[in-house]
Amino acid sequence: MKLLFVAALTFAMCATGCSSSDDTRAEASGFVAIGQSDAPDGCGPDAVGRLVIGFFEAFNSGDIEGRVDEFIAPANRFAWFSVDGVGERFDDDAKDRSTLGSYLQERSDAGERLGLVAMDAEYEQARNITHIAYNVERTEPETLEGAKVVVGKGAIDCESGKIMVWSMGTSEGGPQALCRSAPTNTDPELPIVCVRESL
């Protein structure tokens, strides 16, 4: 999938778990991971990148309902999944972990497709979670407008190493400015996952 762009929007200064994002760079599983993190195993930028990209690949393949447990935190750790706009879901059922797999399968069967553009990660030791913010290329089959970049935020449960919060929608300001210190020679076709930067 051709990635679109990462445009400018000032992002919040991180409070905990930050480190320089240009001191470590590695390519793995079709994305570039940048920066070091004090996050435990399974919650640093490399692991979070693999998790989200794996989730998208399962979603896009039409095989998400049977694999949702691979990517979504268990019910005792799951908080919510929400989408703004076409295919939106944020009601009482959205907080019910047991309904999420069938919802995702319906969206996949309808032809929705997701591709990561960029994502940053910030570990919070107090709650043992990693906060994420992301730009995602989303195709909404109902609009017939083709792919567009949407924005969002969420959290990874470091106890299970899976997604516990996901909130995705459009933004009048356009995509967030994430991973600003990515090397200029980074392959523009590859998503970038980095440690959240201090401003």
Residue share in helices? 10-25%
**pLDDT < 50 runs, ≥5 residues:** 1-25
Average pLDDT, to the nearest integer? 81
Cα gyration radius (Å)? 16 Å
Largest sheet entry:
8 strands, mixed
Class by alpha and beta content: alpha/beta
CATH top level is Alpha Beta
Q: Please provide the count of β strands.
A: 8
Number of helices: 3
CATH-defined architecture: Roll
Strand content: 25-35%
The overall number of domains is 1
Oligomer: single chain
- Report strand order across the widest sheet: 1-2-8-4-5-6-7-3
Specify the overall morphology: globular
CATH third-level topology: Nuclear Transport Factor 2, Chain: A
Measure the end-to-end span: 31 Å
Please provide the ordered H/E string of secondary-structure elements: EEHHEHEEEEE
Q: If you had to describe this structure to a student in words, what would you say it looks like?
A:
The model is unreliable at 1-25 (pLDDT under 50). The protein has helices at 45-61, 68-71, 97-110, and strands spanning 25-28, 31-34, 80-83, 113-124, 129-139, 147-157, 162-169, 192-195. The protein is globular, with a radius of gyration of 16 Å. Strands 1-2-8-4-5-6-7-3 form an 8-stranded mixed sheet, covered by helices on one side. The chain is built from 3 helices and 8 strands; from the N terminus they run ββααβαβββββ. The protein has one domain (25-195): Nuclear Transport Factor 2, Chain: A, CATH 3.10.450. By secondary structure, it is α/β, with parallel strands linked by helices.
